[in-house]
Protein backbone atom coordinates (compact mmCIF):
# COMPACT_ATOMS: atom_id res chain seq x y z
CA UNK A 1 0.00 0.00 0.00
CA UNK A 2 1.39 3.38 -0.99
CA UNK A 3 2.33 5.81 1.76
CA UNK A 4 -0.35 8.43 2.45
CA UNK A 5 0.31 11.82 0.87
CA UNK A 6 -0.93 14.88 2.76
CA UNK A 7 -0.84 18.36 1.24
CA UNK A 8 -0.99 21.32 3.61
CA UNK A 9 -2.07 24.45 1.76
CA UNK A 10 -4.10 27.63 1.98
CA UNK A 11 -7.84 27.25 1.55
CA UNK A 12 -10.27 28.68 -0.94
CA UNK A 13 -12.93 31.27 -1.59
CA UNK A 14 -14.66 33.00 -4.48
CA UNK A 15 -15.38 29.63 -6.08
CA UNK A 16 -11.74 28.45 -5.89
CA UNK A 17 -10.36 25.44 -4.00
CA UNK A 18 -7.47 27.71 -2.95
CA UNK A 19 -6.77 31.39 -3.55
CA UNK A 20 -3.02 30.75 -3.26
CA UNK A 21 -1.32 30.29 -6.64
CA UNK A 22 1.36 27.83 -5.55
CA UNK A 23 -1.18 25.72 -3.65
CA UNK A 24 -3.42 25.69 -6.73
CA UNK A 25 -0.55 24.53 -8.97
CA UNK A 26 0.01 21.44 -6.81
CA UNK A 27 -3.69 20.72 -6.32
CA UNK A 28 -4.35 20.92 -10.07
CA UNK A 29 -1.36 18.72 -10.94
CA UNK A 30 -2.51 16.11 -8.42
CA UNK A 31 -5.94 16.06 -10.06
CA UNK A 32 -4.42 15.77 -13.55
CA UNK A 33 -2.00 12.97 -12.59
CA UNK A 34 -4.34 11.04 -10.30
CA UNK A 35 -2.16 11.48 -7.21
CA UNK A 36 -4.25 10.55 -4.12
CA UNK A 37 -3.58 13.59 -1.98
CA UNK A 38 -5.28 14.26 1.32
CA UNK A 39 -5.63 18.04 1.34
CA UNK A 40 -5.43 19.80 4.72
CA UNK A 41 -6.22 23.49 4.69
CA UNK A 42 -4.38 25.88 6.98
CA UNK A 43 -6.55 27.04 9.88
CA UNK A 44 -6.12 28.70 13.28
CA UNK A 45 -4.54 25.55 14.74
CA UNK A 46 -1.56 25.91 12.41
CA UNK A 47 1.86 26.16 14.05
CA UNK A 48 3.97 27.35 11.11
CA UNK A 49 5.78 30.67 11.38
CA UNK A 50 6.92 31.52 7.85
CA UNK A 51 4.00 30.81 5.55
CA UNK A 52 6.00 28.30 3.48
CA UNK A 53 3.13 26.40 1.91
CA UNK A 54 2.19 24.20 0.14
CA UNK A 55 3.91 21.36 1.99
CA UNK A 56 3.64 17.70 1.01
CA UNK A 57 4.08 15.23 3.87
CA UNK A 58 4.56 11.47 3.61
CA UNK A 59 5.42 8.85 6.21
CA UNK A 60 9.13 9.72 6.10
CA UNK A 61 9.50 12.85 3.99
CA UNK A 62 8.45 16.50 3.77
CA UNK A 63 8.61 18.45 0.51
CA UNK A 64 7.90 22.13 -0.10
CA UNK A 65 7.80 24.36 -3.21
CA UNK A 66 5.62 23.39 -6.21
CA UNK A 67 8.46 22.30 -8.53
CA UNK A 68 9.93 19.95 -5.90
CA UNK A 69 6.51 18.57 -4.98
CA UNK A 70 5.69 17.86 -8.63
CA UNK A 71 9.04 16.13 -9.12
CA UNK A 72 8.37 14.01 -6.05
CA UNK A 73 4.95 13.00 -7.41
CA UNK A 74 6.49 12.06 -10.76
CA UNK A 75 8.94 9.76 -8.97
CA UNK A 76 5.91 8.12 -7.35
CA UNK A 77 4.57 7.36 -10.86
CA UNK A 78 2.04 10.23 -10.86
CA UNK A 79 3.05 11.85 -14.13
CA UNK A 80 0.73 14.20 -16.01
CA UNK A 81 3.28 14.60 -18.84
CA UNK A 82 3.83 11.01 -19.97
CA UNK A 83 2.13 11.65 -23.33
CA UNK A 84 4.18 14.76 -24.16
CA UNK A 85 6.89 14.74 -26.81
CA UNK A 86 10.42 15.97 -26.13
CA UNK A 87 9.60 19.29 -27.82
CA UNK A 88 6.46 19.71 -25.73
CA UNK A 89 8.49 18.99 -22.62
CA UNK A 90 10.97 21.71 -23.60
CA UNK A 91 8.08 24.10 -24.33
CA UNK A 92 6.68 23.36 -20.88
CA UNK A 93 9.91 24.43 -19.20
CA UNK A 94 10.10 27.58 -21.34
CA UNK A 95 6.54 28.64 -20.58
CA UNK A 96 6.89 28.00 -16.85
CA UNK A 97 10.02 30.19 -16.85
CA UNK A 98 8.01 32.85 -18.71
CA UNK A 99 5.21 32.67 -16.14
CA UNK A 100 7.61 33.04 -13.23
CA UNK A 101 9.49 35.92 -14.83
CA UNK A 102 6.66 37.90 -16.43
CA UNK A 103 3.40 37.02 -14.66
CA UNK A 104 4.33 36.05 -11.10
CA UNK A 105 5.60 39.54 -10.11
CA UNK A 106 2.22 41.03 -11.08
CA UNK A 107 0.34 38.30 -9.18
CA UNK A 108 2.42 38.99 -6.07
CA UNK A 109 1.95 42.73 -6.48
CA UNK A 110 -1.82 42.38 -6.91
CA UNK A 111 -2.21 40.32 -3.74
CA UNK A 112 0.53 41.53 -1.42
CA UNK A 113 1.82 44.97 -2.44
CA UNK A 114 -1.12 46.91 -3.89
CA UNK A 115 -2.31 48.68 -0.75
CA UNK A 116 -6.08 48.59 -1.27
CA UNK A 117 -6.05 44.91 -2.22
CA UNK A 118 -3.78 43.94 0.66
CA UNK A 119 -5.69 45.71 3.43
CA UNK A 120 -9.22 44.91 2.24
CA UNK A 121 -8.79 41.35 0.91
CA UNK A 122 -5.41 39.64 1.33
CA UNK A 123 -4.48 40.55 4.89
CA UNK A 124 -7.88 39.86 6.53
CA UNK A 125 -8.35 36.64 4.55
CA UNK A 126 -5.00 35.17 5.59
CA UNK A 127 -5.20 36.58 9.13
CA UNK A 128 -8.52 34.78 9.67
CA UNK A 129 -6.77 31.46 9.06
CA UNK A 130 -3.71 32.01 11.24
CA UNK A 131 -3.73 31.66 15.04
CA UNK A 132 -3.42 34.79 17.18
CA UNK A 133 -0.98 36.52 17.71
CA UNK A 134 0.80 35.13 14.63
CA UNK A 135 -2.13 36.47 12.59
CA UNK A 136 -0.91 40.00 13.33
CA UNK A 137 2.65 39.24 12.21
CA UNK A 138 2.71 36.66 9.42
CA UNK A 139 0.64 38.53 6.76
CA UNK A 140 3.02 41.47 7.00
CA UNK A 141 6.01 39.13 6.79
CA UNK A 142 4.51 37.48 3.69
CA UNK A 143 3.87 40.91 2.16
CA UNK A 144 7.49 41.94 2.67
CA UNK A 145 8.62 38.61 1.24
CA UNK A 146 6.54 39.20 -1.88
CA UNK A 147 7.96 42.71 -2.27
CA UNK A 148 11.51 41.42 -1.89
CA UNK A 149 10.84 38.73 -4.47
CA UNK A 150 9.54 41.34 -6.92
CA UNK A 151 12.54 43.60 -6.41
CA UNK A 152 14.91 40.64 -6.67
CA UNK A 153 13.57 39.69 -10.11
CA UNK A 154 12.57 43.10 -11.48
CA UNK A 155 14.43 45.74 -9.49
CA UNK A 156 17.39 46.11 -11.83
CA UNK A 157 19.18 49.38 -12.67
CA UNK A 158 17.90 51.97 -13.24
CA UNK A 159 14.68 50.67 -11.59
CA UNK A 160 15.13 49.91 -7.92
CA UNK A 161 11.90 50.66 -6.06
CA UNK A 162 8.54 48.99 -6.54
CA UNK A 163 6.95 52.32 -7.49
CA UNK A 164 9.38 52.54 -10.40
CA UNK A 165 8.90 48.97 -11.58
CA UNK A 166 5.12 48.77 -11.12
CA UNK A 167 4.23 49.96 -14.62
CA UNK A 168 6.78 47.57 -16.16
CA UNK A 169 5.46 44.68 -14.05
CA UNK A 170 1.95 45.08 -15.40
CA UNK A 171 3.08 45.63 -18.98
CA UNK A 172 5.04 42.39 -18.84
CA UNK A 173 2.11 40.55 -17.25
CA UNK A 174 -0.34 41.70 -19.93
CA UNK A 175 2.08 40.64 -22.67
CA UNK A 176 2.42 37.25 -20.98
CA UNK A 177 -1.36 36.84 -20.84
CA UNK A 178 -1.60 37.71 -24.53
CA UNK A 179 1.05 35.10 -25.37
CA UNK A 180 -0.76 32.45 -23.33
CA UNK A 181 -4.05 33.30 -25.02
CA UNK A 182 -2.49 32.99 -28.47
CA UNK A 183 -0.79 29.71 -27.54
CA UNK A 184 -3.99 28.18 -26.15
CA UNK A 185 -6.16 29.28 -29.07
CA UNK A 186 -9.34 27.21 -29.23
CA UNK A 187 -7.80 24.11 -27.60
CA UNK A 188 -9.08 22.80 -24.30
CA UNK A 189 -5.57 22.53 -22.87
CA UNK A 190 -2.15 23.75 -23.97
CA UNK A 191 -1.10 20.42 -25.49
CA UNK A 192 -4.41 19.14 -26.80
CA UNK A 193 -7.14 17.32 -24.91
CA UNK A 194 -5.12 16.18 -21.88
CA UNK A 195 -3.97 18.52 -19.08
CA UNK A 196 -0.28 18.59 -18.18
CA UNK A 197 2.17 20.38 -15.91
CA UNK A 198 1.90 23.58 -17.94
CA UNK A 199 -1.87 23.61 -17.53
CA UNK A 200 -1.45 23.25 -13.76
CA UNK A 201 0.92 26.23 -13.62
CA UNK A 202 -1.21 28.45 -15.86
CA UNK A 203 -4.36 27.58 -13.91
CA UNK A 204 -2.62 28.19 -10.58
CA UNK A 205 -1.44 31.65 -11.65
CA UNK A 206 -4.58 32.75 -13.51
CA UNK A 207 -7.49 31.45 -11.44
CA UNK A 208 -6.93 33.72 -8.38
CA UNK A 209 -6.53 36.76 -10.66
CA UNK A 210 -9.71 35.77 -12.46
CA UNK A 211 -11.94 34.97 -9.47
CA UNK A 212 -10.89 36.94 -6.37
CA UNK A 213 -12.79 40.21 -5.97
CA UNK A 214 -10.23 42.98 -5.54
CA UNK A 215 -10.84 46.74 -5.38
CA UNK A 216 -7.89 47.30 -7.77
CA UNK A 217 -8.36 45.05 -10.80
CA UNK A 218 -6.29 46.35 -13.71
CA UNK A 219 -4.77 42.95 -14.51
CA UNK A 220 -8.05 41.17 -13.82
CA UNK A 221 -9.82 43.40 -16.34
CA UNK A 222 -7.25 42.52 -18.99
CA UNK A 223 -7.56 38.80 -18.23
CA UNK A 224 -11.35 38.91 -18.55
CA UNK A 225 -10.97 40.27 -22.08
CA UNK A 226 -9.17 37.04 -23.05
CA UNK A 227 -12.20 34.75 -23.16
CA UNK A 228 -10.29 31.56 -23.94
CA UNK A 229 -8.16 31.89 -20.78
CA UNK A 230 -11.28 32.50 -18.69
CA UNK A 231 -12.95 29.47 -20.27
CA UNK A 232 -9.79 27.46 -19.56
CA UNK A 233 -10.03 28.28 -15.83
CA UNK A 234 -13.78 27.64 -15.71
CA UNK A 235 -13.42 24.26 -17.44
CA UNK A 236 -10.77 23.06 -14.98
CA UNK A 237 -12.82 24.20 -12.00
CA UNK A 238 -15.92 22.50 -13.37
CA UNK A 239 -14.22 19.26 -14.45
CA UNK A 240 -11.77 18.68 -11.58
CA UNK A 241 -12.93 20.66 -8.52
CA UNK A 242 -16.73 20.79 -8.71
CA UNK A 243 -17.31 18.13 -6.02
CA UNK A 244 -14.77 19.60 -3.61
CA UNK A 245 -16.21 23.09 -4.00
CA UNK A 246 -19.81 22.05 -3.62
CA UNK A 247 -21.00 25.12 -5.47
CA UNK A 248 -21.38 28.65 -4.10
CA UNK A 249 -24.45 30.61 -5.06
CA UNK A 250 -24.24 34.34 -5.83
CA UNK A 251 -26.13 35.04 -2.61
CA UNK A 252 -23.68 32.87 -0.70
CA UNK A 253 -20.73 34.68 -2.24
CA UNK A 254 -22.26 38.02 -1.22
CA UNK A 255 -22.44 36.72 2.34
CA UNK A 256 -18.78 35.66 2.15
CA UNK A 257 -17.81 39.11 0.87
CA UNK A 258 -19.82 40.82 3.62
CA UNK A 259 -18.15 38.67 6.28
CA UNK A 260 -14.74 39.43 4.78
CA UNK A 261 -15.50 43.15 4.96
CA UNK A 262 -16.36 42.84 8.66
CA UNK A 263 -13.21 40.81 9.23
CA UNK A 264 -11.19 43.46 7.41
CA UNK A 265 -12.44 46.12 9.79
CA UNK A 266 -11.70 43.95 12.82
CA UNK A 267 -8.16 43.03 11.72
CA UNK A 268 -7.35 46.64 10.86
CA UNK A 269 -8.63 47.82 14.25
CA UNK A 270 -6.46 45.23 16.03
CA UNK A 271 -3.42 46.22 13.97
CA UNK A 272 -3.99 49.93 14.61
CA UNK A 273 -4.41 49.30 18.34
CA UNK A 274 -1.16 47.34 18.55
CA UNK A 275 0.67 50.03 16.54
CA UNK A 276 -0.64 52.74 18.89
CA UNK A 277 0.41 50.75 21.95
CA UNK A 278 3.86 50.25 20.44
CA UNK A 279 4.16 53.98 19.62
CA UNK A 280 3.08 54.93 23.14
CA UNK A 281 5.65 52.61 24.65
CA UNK A 282 8.38 54.02 22.43
CA UNK A 283 7.43 57.65 23.18
CA UNK A 284 6.93 57.25 26.93
CA UNK A 285 9.70 58.73 29.11
CA UNK A 286 12.30 56.19 30.06
CA UNK A 287 12.88 56.43 33.81
CA UNK A 288 16.20 55.30 35.24
CA UNK A 289 16.03 52.00 37.09
CA UNK A 290 15.22 52.42 40.74
CA UNK A 291 17.76 51.30 43.30
CA UNK A 292 16.48 48.90 45.88
CA UNK A 293 16.57 50.44 49.36
CA UNK A 294 19.35 49.15 51.58
CA UNK A 295 18.20 48.17 55.04
CA UNK A 296 20.59 49.19 57.79
CA UNK A 297 20.99 46.46 60.34
CA UNK A 298 21.11 47.14 64.04
CA UNK A 299 24.30 46.16 65.90
CA UNK A 300 22.52 43.13 67.37
CA UNK A 301 21.43 41.97 63.92
CA UNK A 302 24.93 42.51 62.52
CA UNK A 303 26.40 40.43 65.32
CA UNK A 304 23.82 37.68 64.76
CA UNK A 305 24.63 37.56 61.03
CA UNK A 306 28.37 37.39 61.77
CA UNK A 307 27.86 34.45 64.12
CA UNK A 308 25.74 32.64 61.51
CA UNK A 309 28.46 33.03 58.88
CA UNK A 310 31.12 31.71 61.30
CA UNK A 311 29.07 28.71 62.44
CA UNK A 312 29.82 25.37 60.62
TrEMBL record:
Entry-linked InterPro entries: Glutathione-S-Trfase_C_sf (IPR036282), Glutathione_S-Trfase (IPR040079), Metaxin1/3 (IPR017410), Metaxin_GST (IPR033468), Mito_Protein_Transport_Metaxin (IPR050931), Sam37/metaxin_N (IPR019564)
Q: Write out the ranges of the annotated region (Disordered).
A: 278-312
Q: What UniProt keywords are attached to this protein's entry?
A: Membrane, Mitochondrion, Mitochondrion outer membrane, Protein transport, Transport
Compartments reported by the entry: Mitochondrion outer membrane
A single GO cellular-component term on record = SAM complex
Q: Which residues form the Mitochondrial outer membrane transport complex Sam37/metaxin N-terminal domain?
A: 23-142
Q: Which SUPFAM superfamilies match?
A: GST C-terminal domain-like (SSF47616)
Q: Which GO BP terms, alphabetically?
A: mitochondrion organization; protein transport
Metaxin glutathione S-transferase domain segment(s): 173-236
Matches recorded under CDD domains: GST_C_Metaxin1_3, GST_N_Metaxin1_like
Q: Which Pfam families match?
A: GST_C_6 (PF17171), Tom37 (PF10568)
Family (UniProt): Belongs to the metaxin family.
Q: Give the protein name, as stated in the record.
A: Metaxin
**Lineage of the organism:** Eukaryota, Metazoa, Chordata, Craniata, Vertebrata
Amino acid sequence: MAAPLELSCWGGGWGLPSIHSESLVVMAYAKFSGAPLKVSFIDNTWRGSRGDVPILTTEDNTVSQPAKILNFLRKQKYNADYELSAKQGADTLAYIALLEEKLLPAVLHTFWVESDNYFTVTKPWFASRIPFPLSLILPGRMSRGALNRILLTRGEPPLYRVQEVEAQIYRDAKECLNLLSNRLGTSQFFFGDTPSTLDAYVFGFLAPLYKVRFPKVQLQEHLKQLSNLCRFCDDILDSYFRLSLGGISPAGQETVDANLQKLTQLVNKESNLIEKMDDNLRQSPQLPPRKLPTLKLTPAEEESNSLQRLSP
